[in-house]
Specification:
Order of helices and strands: HEEEEEEEEEEEEHEEEHEEEHHEEEH
Shape: globular
Number of strands: 21
Number of helices: 6
Helix content: 25-40%
Structural class: alpha+beta
Strand content: 25-35%
């Protein structure tokens, strides 16, 4: 009888101990559970990563990144995607004293794809919880490394950021061939720039004729794209004249001064997001030789292939000479004044083609394939053959693939009917916790095995 009571007591005690172990285990797991995320930093000993149970907006602990000095840091996770499909990653973000080393819009708290310029809007300073959405097209990829970041591509940040309610959705691609285009005309540039190690103040204004020429050529461009592509692609464009002056310019050795997304972000972002444009032009004047103002002169009239949060972004600059016919129709001199709009848009299609994995001729290599500029029509014939994959090369026809004309950026409209994915979901119970641990152990062994194979291959 005594032994039986002792046996029952022992079982009860064992059960109590098991419950205590499970509770302690869950507490420890909850505190140190990074849910399959890796912690990445550019510089060590500047950033701490934690799960914060005090600062959160939902029942799950938030992901906290704290950088006491300028750094680029992120929680990241590789997720599987289907090619050529729109995806949306969202979360809630809170920031405290976040600032960027170079004061660019590419830095701060945001969502991104690691190793690329693809990212959401960034949050800086100090602000309470707010929603951040990141839209991207998977293009030809089957997996991407999603980052919840404090820092940026070629930027470093410091401060504290909390990320919560992480969510990923797959949307439905817009497979129509109509692209929505936004053209933002900035009549005034008022900047301080460095020229030959001296500060120069430059103020330039477009005339009413300049503005009218841009609007007229955009109208011609709408029709030219359809005609040149034989209706494979269509564009619908809208123009905005913004009288706030551009007060900063970007610079690189190849192009000199130009207008980047950072320089106009504050003026156009709310419009771009509302209208969900597929491509953006920014038009402005950077020199006026008639008035002796040619400090910013360089050898381009359009600059394309750039990116505005996943959207094609191009510069259209007025000719340095007010008497130029570059943007004016004249049957003796220029019957293709919209050429710069066509050319820069094709740079975006060229970039998209490469990112989708297509091998295509470079847009600037027209002479390599026997094309020359016509006196009145410029490179119109080259653009037509380029868009219709009709360039003769070694017995083959090459150019842009027709599929690229329907490969557009991802927008909110792609998620009217979406499928939520389970990639960032937290474990809900002990069974899911254990399953998550086994998954991580399996990934760790796989990682170690791959590293061992790499070392063996190097040694052999």
């Amino acid at each position: 009888m005594f032994k039986k009571k002792k046996s029952v007591f022992g079982r009860i005690l064992s059960l109590i101990l098991l419950v205590i172990v499970i509770i302690v285990f869950c507490i420890i797991y909850r505190k140190y559970n990074y849910n399959n995320f890796l912690k990445n930093v550019v510089e060590t000993n500047k950033t701490t990563f934690t799960r914060d149970s005090n600062e959160k907006i939902s029942k799950e602990d938030s992901y906290k990144i704290e950088s006491k000095d300028y750094n680029d840091a992120m929680f990241s996770q590789v997720v599987s995607v289907l090619p050529n499909r729109p995806y949306k990653v969202s979360c809630k973000v809170k920031v405290e004293n976040v600032e960027n080393l170079n004061e660019t819009i590419s830095g701060g708290a945001h969502i991104c794809i690691e190793g690329t310029t693809e990212r959401s809007n960034t949050i800086n300073g100090t602000s309470d919880w707010q929603e951040v959405n990141f839209y991207f097209n998977s293009k030809n990829r089957t997996e991407v490394n999603i980052g919840f970041r404090l820092g940026g591509y070629k930027e470093k940040s410091k401060g504290t950021a909390w990320f919560s309610d992480l969510k990923m959705e797959a949307g439905t691609a817009d497979t129509t061939n109509t692209w929505k285009i936004g053209c933002f005309i900035f009549p005034i540039i008022d900047v301080n720039v460095d020229v030959n190690e001296k500060k120069e103040h430059v103020k330039l204004e477009m005339t009413e004729t300049d503005i009218a020429d841009i609007i007229y050529n955009l109208y011609r461009y709408n029709e030219s794209i359809s005609k040149l592509s034989k209706n494979k692609i269509k564009v619908e464009s809208e123009t905005y004249t913004i009288w706030n002056p551009i007060t900063t310019l970007s610079y690189d050795e190849e192009n000199g001064y130009y207008v980047s997304a950072s320089d106009v972000y504050a003026y156009i972002n709310h419009i771009v997001r509302e209208k969900q444009y597929d491509h953006i032009y920014v038009a402005f004047r950077m020199a006026n030789k008639q008035k002796g103002n040619d400090v910013l002169v360089n050898d381009w009239i359009g600059l394309g292939g750039m990116d505005y949060f996943g959207i094609g972004f191009s510069n259209i600059r007025m000719p340095d000479d007010e008497n130029s016919y570059a943007y004016q129709y004249n049957y003796l001199v220029n019957t293709f004044p919209e050429e710069v709009f066509v050319h820069e848009f094709l740079h975006t299609l060229e970039r998209n083609s490469e990112e989708y994995g297509y091998e295509i001729p470079a847009l600037h290599d027209y002479s390599k394939y026997g094309y020359t500029e016509d006196r009145t029509e410029g490179l119109k014939k080259w653009y037509e053959d380029y868009m219709n994959c009709n360039i003769d090369y070694n017995g083959k026809k090459i150019g842009l693939p027709s599929e690229i004309f329907t490969c557009k950026p991802a927008h909110e409209d792609n998620f009217t009917y979406s499928t939520e994915l389970s990639v960032f979901k937290e474990p809900k119970n002990v069974i899911e916790v254990v399953r998550s641990l086994f998954t991580r152990v399996g990934r760790l062994f796989s990682y170690m095995s791959n590293k061992t194979n790499e070392i063996e291959n190097i040694n052999t």
